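Re: your question from the hallway

Yes, I did run it. Sequences:
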Amino acid sequence: MNRYPLWKYLIIAISILLGLFYTLPNFYGESPAVQVSPLRTAAKADTALLQRVEEALKKANLVPSGMFLEEGGVKVRFSDTDAQIKARDTLQSVLGNGYMVALNLLPNSPQWLTSLGALPMYLGLDLRGGVHFMLQVDMHGALSKALDRYSADIRSSLREQKIPYIGLDKDSTRVIVKFRDPESRAKAEAEIKKTYADLSLREQNVGDEFHLAATLKPEAQKLMQDSAVQQNITTLRNRVNELGVAEPIIQQAGADRVVVQLPGVQDTAKAKDILGRTATLEVRMVDDERDLAAALRGQVPFGTELYYERGGGPLLVKKQVVLTGDRINDAQAGFDNNNQPAVHLNLDNNGARIFRQLTQENVGKRMAILLIEKNQAEVVTAPVIREEIGGGRVQISGRMTTEEARDVALLLRAGALAAPMDIIEERTVGPSLGADNISRGFDSTLFGFAAIAVFMSAYYLMFGFISVIALGVNLLLLVGLLSILQATLTLPGMAAIALTLGMAIDANVLINERIREELRNGVSPQAAITSGYERAFGTILDSNITTLIAGIALFAFGSGPVKGFAVVLCLGILTSMFSAVMVSRGMVNLVYGNRRKLERVSIGQVWKPASDRR
Amino acid sequence: MEFFRIKRDIPFMSWGKYTTTISLLTFVVSVFFLFTKGLNLGVDFTGGTVMEVGYTQSADIGKVRNILIKLGMSDASVQNFGTSRDVMIRLPAKPDISSARLSETVIAALRQDDKTAEIRRVEFVGPQVGKELVENGALALLMVSLGIVAYLAVRFEWKFGVAGIIANLHDVVIILGFFAFFQWEFSLTVLAAILAILGYSVNESVVIFDRIRENFRKLRKAPVTQVIDNAITRTMSRTIITHGSTQMVVVSMLFFGGEALHYFALALTIGILFGIYSSVLVASPLLMLLGVSREDIVKPEKKKDEVEALP
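Structure:
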């Protein structure tokens, strides 16, 4: 007698139902959608926004197939991509700067499924198309930038305290302040120690000069690097928001790396450009007293640099940076009084104070506003300071086009990168290839499954059929589990689904062969089933554990797509243990278990050797 | 239907000399090709840029090549990929050029020539990332091997662990030998396939080892060779059918999986075929060679048997 207690049947039934339920959303497909989310915390995603979106679409004669308000934004579904793109353009122009309008794909599964947490599998970039970047933060650059800031700050505190110094140099790891006499150095040392706890100081005497070398303390350096990565992530997030990407992933990977994934982005050139740009602003003073003619001949006076003003003549600019882009609160493109394109800046308190002091002390002199991009500085404008400028409102205008003004404003607003970054890995998959990959992965699984189903049913008859059903349950549970966990499904992941099916059948082959063997030895069918399952189980466990070891190692050391493969492989092994052993046994019990007089079972021909060996 | 009607135990162990020779030979040949030809490492490991560009009509490879030469990329390799409309361009890593911008330059130039050119895929891997992936791959291989040896040693006995892993690493070397000989591209996914095969093939050895252990207990008087022969013969049918089923799926991947899964499926195919051979004809002779005996298995288990027999 082979009977399962009721609870075992219940476990099987419940897990199949759960599997069905969570697999369900994958069948509905996706439809093009537009996602509107407010960029600033002040703007809220509420019914008012929903109404605005609705009205704007009505005016443009666009009929959405669905519209709903979610936490963080409004999502509008369309029946085709044409309407989707039109709607994006319309909404972008109506709603303006404060909102992010992004193209997206929304699952078509009914609301009740979604609200119960049943979502389709999360597709990786190789299946849905998009860009994956890995960026490395240049820590030397971060350090150098931090030292830049310190040297500007030290300079101003020395001036405030009226401590005389002859010069200030900066190399890659330290700032050196030079003094004429040890007394002022001692005073400066005390002052710097008091104000900048992160710096460690060392005295040096070079010739008749008294130097003070300031380096960043190791713990401060670590802190600075961490915060550089964090700030870069924030900056990247702002920039990606400006790009309009639905569901971007931006996260730290390792100590100095950032992974950026932008699903569905088509214009990779633009994405790369915006992400990689290190635009920042510097305000410096123009040196009109030194010899410009000599500089043009190649003898640039010490402490200055030669630049050309945009659309204008050459000028000497002091190396000393007065103000950097970090002090900018907001930047907007607009027009100046002469109706020329301009960027309006709003400085923070500190920046406003520095700027007022600067303009107050230098009335009648020229200052230069430099835009630094890709390590190249350009003087955007070099106006004469006519009066003290307070309140932190600054306007830059200087032969820019409207387009340029908008780009500069975007980059300044999104913030500067705390440290330069390099793209060290890029994987771009076009949307058409993504769709191809899905169908390829699907076909491989389908035909592989079909081949196994035909063979198993032909070779093991009823038991083969039961094995195939168990294999189907395995597939169902695996897809359901992947949907529940929202693990990223990649193409290697789909290959792993196919492969686990091929491997999972091993368990049933083992069981069926064992049962045949028992029958061959003349055991009664019921007893053969029992001992077949029992004896095979140990072997199944052993053999699955070795594959599991491989899967776990792959997960631990693999990256990207390989990780996806490993996840599916491991989950597939777990589900196959359940389905091959418990589900198939349950079915065998249902079919044969209750028959008191079971003469033979349908497991294919059991051949017995004519003369028994033993 | 029943394929395997084996009357007597097949004397596998008496073939030990021949199989060991064959194994050694293929192993040496594989190692030879690995050293002389080397692996054709993919962009994942070497660093560099791979671009897949799709056209609406058949692509003119010569023209694409000329465009690239004009851009100063004479070291680029251009070839058809999958269909005649798809082109794959490989650009080696250069330390002085920011490769991230490289692909943009190339596609812009190609678009100028033919507007239908569309980027299907770009993969750029920086040299330091490539190096890390090589290190991590080697580490993964090591960890899997150690993990499997440890498991088999605990579950069976150390001799089984050693025999199992040697047999399966022999498969790995042979797969690598194939990749070296045919200069197939060795990518991250192929590495994943090899590690999966390592886990999978060990299954095979485990099933046979299981039988050997069972036989040691059951056939108390039989000599070791007979015990092993019987174990292999009895599991033959299952071995072939299981591998056949897995192979069916892999073949389906080979045919329908497209270029992206091609080498993955190829590595699996070789692995599965040699997996059968090695677990039957390499692992077991090795076990003999290591001097496995009934005492290795039966002694510590004896008490357990008695306990089980009590009620």
